């Protein structure tokens, strides 16, 4: 049996998402497909970096840097995990690429599709691996669901998909510098949680991306009809309707003042319906197949930790094999989703300073 690949991670930024990521990589898993080493931490200050290690990596001793530049330059780091706010992703990626580092960058990959193009072009030129960290796509439940829908045709021809991801972000009470309130930081529901709703409508309506017999490339971008509710220029509610040429429809919603129910997604077909459940759209735990004749079957999927390790394993296997992008989350899909979100904001009215009129 081939030895598991080992990947040495440099963690850029010490916020909540980075703490979740390192906790998952530190889990002892029997099904792990790779060995993950937290090699180094890059923070805006040495004190913050050391505090992060003390709290989230007890018993471990990664190198701690008080600047991002030192992290990029560390020769012992194979890949940079970027956990900064959306607006910093483009520059963080470009800086890591400049140093020849592989990159896993949190979603949303950038503020706009043109920014994403610039990053991907740089990665292509440098010859490094890069992927958007849309972790949910790597959950076993997603592959099982798409197999039921698109290979086994469990509910016949799929016609519609709905998904909502909403919770009370308390945006009105936040200060102007908050990443959820400041448009310069990519504030609003769309890039933060709406991207999950959009992803689920795509997962429900389209055959899976990935190795054969799955599709090798994303489908043509559907027509987008969108609306947003704005508060001081920040979208506090977003609705996206995807209209496919063959009649399929997807409805993705996100809201900053109400909370989604556990049954956050519904996929309707000619012979039944699938309900997807979980604490939120980011962390699905089960789905129910309901046939028109009344037959129902539930599928549950355990998830030790939070589930970030599945995408990390996939990245490690890709890099070990010399691949520069991932088949489940390829560059073309990142760009297509960014383009849909750009069009959503164009119609809905949420603007970022980097937008070009």
From TrEMBL:
Residues 147-274 form the GFO/IDH/MocA-like oxidoreductase domain. It comes from the Eukaryota. GO terms for molecular function: D-xylose 1-dehydrogenase (NADP+) activity; nucleotide binding. Keywords: Oxidoreductase. InterPro entries: Gfo/Idh/MocA-like_OxRdtase_N (IPR000683), Gfo/Idh/MocA_domain (IPR050984), GFO_IDH_MocA-like_dom (IPR055170), NAD(P)-bd_dom_sf (IPR036291). It catalyses: D-xylose + NADP(+) = D-xylono-1,5-lactone + NADPH + H(+). The keyword Oxidoreductase applies. Residues 8-131 form the Gfo/Idh/MocA-like oxidoreductase N-terminal domain. Its EC number is 1.1.1.179. The keyword Oxidoreductase applies. Belongs to the Gfo/Idh/MocA family. This is D-xylose 1-dehydrogenase (NADP(+), D-xylono-1,5-lactone-forming).
């Amino acid at each position: 049996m081939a030895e598991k690949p080992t990947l040495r991670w440099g963690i850029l930024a010490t916020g909540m998402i980075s703490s979740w990521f390192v906790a998952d990589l530190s889990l002892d898993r029997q099904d792990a497909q790779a060995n993950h080493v937290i090699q180094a931490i890059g923070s805006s200050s040495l004190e913050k970096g050391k505090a992060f290690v003390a709290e989230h990596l007890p018993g471990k001793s990664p190198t701690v840097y008080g600047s991002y530049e030192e992290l990029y330059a560390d020769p012992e780091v194979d890949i940079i995990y970027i956990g900064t706010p959306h607006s910093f992703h483009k520059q963080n990626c470009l800086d890591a690429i400049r140093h020849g580092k592989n990159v896993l960058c949190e979603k949303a990959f950038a503020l706009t599709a043109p920014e994403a193009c610039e990053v991907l072009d740089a990665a292509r030129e440098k010859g490094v691996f890069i992927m958007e960290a849309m972790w949910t796509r790597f959950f076993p439940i997603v592959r099982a669901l798409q197999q039921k829908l698109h290979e086994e045709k469990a509910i016949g021809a799929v016609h519609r998909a709905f998904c909502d991801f909403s919770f009370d972000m308390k945006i009105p009470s936040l200060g102007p510098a908050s990443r959820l309130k400041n448009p310069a930081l990519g504030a609003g529901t769309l890039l933060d949680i709406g991207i999950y709703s959009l992803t689920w409508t795509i997962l429900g309506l389209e055959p899976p991306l990935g190795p054969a017999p799955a599709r090798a490339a994303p489908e043509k971008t559907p027509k987008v009809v969108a609306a947003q509710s704005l508060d001081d220029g920040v979208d506090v509610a977003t609705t996206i309707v995807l209209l496919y040429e063959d009649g399929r429809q997807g409805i993705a919603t996100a809201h900053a003042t109400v909370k989604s129910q556990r049954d956050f997604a519904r996929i309707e077909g000619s012979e039944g319906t699938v309900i997807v459940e979980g604490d939120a759209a980011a962390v699905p735990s089960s789905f129910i197949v309901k046939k028109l004749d009344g037959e129902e079957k539930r599928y549950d999927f355990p998830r030790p930790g939070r589930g970030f390790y599945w995408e990390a394993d996939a990245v490690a296997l890709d890099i070990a094999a010399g691949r520069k992008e991932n088949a489940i989350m390829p560059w073309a899909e990142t760009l297509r989703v960014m383009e849909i979100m750009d069009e959503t904001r164009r119609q809905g009215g949420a603007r970022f300073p980097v937008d070009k009129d």
